[in-house]
Every structure is written in C-alpha cells, then in structure tokens.
Amino acid sequence: MCRFLAYSGEPVFLSDLVCAPTHSLVHQSLHAAEAKTETNGDGFGIGWYGERPEPGIYRDVSPAWSDENLVNLCRQVRARTFFAHVRAATGTATSRANCHPFVHGRHMFMHNGQIGGYHRIKRRLEALIPDALYDGRRGTTDSEAIFLLALANGLIEDPIGAMAGTLSTIRDLMRAAGIAEPLRFTALLTDGERLTAYRWACDGRPPSLYYRQSETGLVVVSEPIDGCREGWRVVPTGGTLQARGGEVTLAEGPEALRERIAA
C-alpha cells in the first residue's frame, strides 16, 4: 500500500510537511508504520496549486528518500493546496506515468488501496471509460482507471455520489469475474479549492486515514507525520471528509457506504 499527504489552507512551504516532520512522508517512504509494507519505494509525486488554475506536477520513479531534487523543490515551493504521494506498486510497472497524483484539468487525484484481481477485469473496466477521457490515460494502474471512470460518472459535480457509483460498477465487474479479493479505496480529490477524502472498502478494512485541522489549515495523511496520534482524528471506515474554505465535514457513515459497495 502507498502513503500520502494532502494540505489545504494558508500557503506553506511543501518541505514543512513533506520533508521536515519526524515521521514525514519522505521518512514513510522507507519506514511506514501502518502499511502492509514498510517500504514505499516505487516512485513518488507531488502536485501543487500556484498562480495558475491547473496544478503543477513533479513525479519520478526514484524512491523519495533518495531524490535530492524532491527535497530542493519542496524547500522552494509554497502553496495553499498540495498533494504528496509515495508509491508501493501492487502489480503494475514502476514508471513515471504510474506515479500519483493524476491530473485532469484543474482536478488532482491520488489513491492508496487496490482493486482485488484487477488484471482479471482491467480490459472490461477500461472499456467503460469514454474515448475523450481514455485518450488522457498515460499509465496502467487501477488508480488512474478509477479516476477516469469517476470523471465520466460526474465526479466534478458530485464527488461522493459519482465515486460511490463508480466503485459499485467495479464491484459488479469483480463479482462477475468471481474475484474474492477485496476492493480497498482510500483516496483524495481536489480542484485547489475543495478537497474530498474517501476511506472506503467492501470488506470494512480500508487503509488508514487521519486528519488534523488548525487555524492555518487542514492536513490529511495516511499516517501522522509527527509520529504521534495525539491531535489527529481518524476518518471513520466508510466515511468521506470534505473541506472548503476552512470548513470540514464528515459525510456518509460506515453502513451507508458499505451497502453501496458491499460484496
């Protein structure tokens, strides 16, 4: 499983959250504490919103812990909203195109989890993505496929409903293929102003997700970056966090979401 971080609030240097803390995302790339594997060395990516509506992106296949360019860039870039992700591949190639976050227009998306038995439904899943969106597919991951199909299902207008419908469709494909492995989906979506964080799984066991809100901004993480759970709140299983303009809300409880993507 991967590890990630998102921030939204007053502009800060990326290094303040991505590199500097005791259990920073760079540290987690080598020493994750709440993932299936301790090492997340199959590439990394950062995406941030600056002076333009569309985000800037920097992704590479080198491990985050060994990339000096990542550290130097984070020291110089200050942003009001940004994503950072370190990847542990789950069956697809280690390539720049497969590193998160993924971008469509001004929207940015990153994912931690997997579609069980993805290789068995990949072709049928991709066939559901309209040509206009499929033309923008650059990698081979299940994460990017989920993002593109959700966009086709109205993700921009309805982040929760469109994503729930998308995962329901994927569960139908999995059932038809006789796949017993779970669908686990912890993910983040933003357009630079509004942020949505999902923590869903068909078996009720999604990857970890925490958040902390202060007077200056909101941080959402796979693992607390200070190495201490005090001050962090857990996004509940089946829950969805939405934030905009300093307001944070939690939507749909575990039972409602489990019913929509249940096995």
Automatic annotation (TrEMBL):
Key words of the record: Glutamine amidotransferase, Transferase
A molecular-function term among this protein's GO annotations: transferase activity
Leader sequence residues: none
The keyword Transferase is annotated on this UniProt entry: yes
SUPFAM superfamilies: N-terminal nucleophile aminohydrolases (Ntn hydrolases)
InterPro entries referenced in this protein's UniProt entry, alphabetically: EgtC-like (IPR026869), Gamma-glu_amide_hydrolase (IPR052373), GATase_2_dom (IPR017932), Ntn_hydrolases_N (IPR029055)
Keyword Phosphoprotein appears in the UniProt entry: no
Residue ranges constituting the Glutamine amidotransferase type-2 domain according to the UniProt record: 2-263
Record protein name field: Class II glutamine amidotransferase
Organism of this sequence: Methylobacterium oxalidis
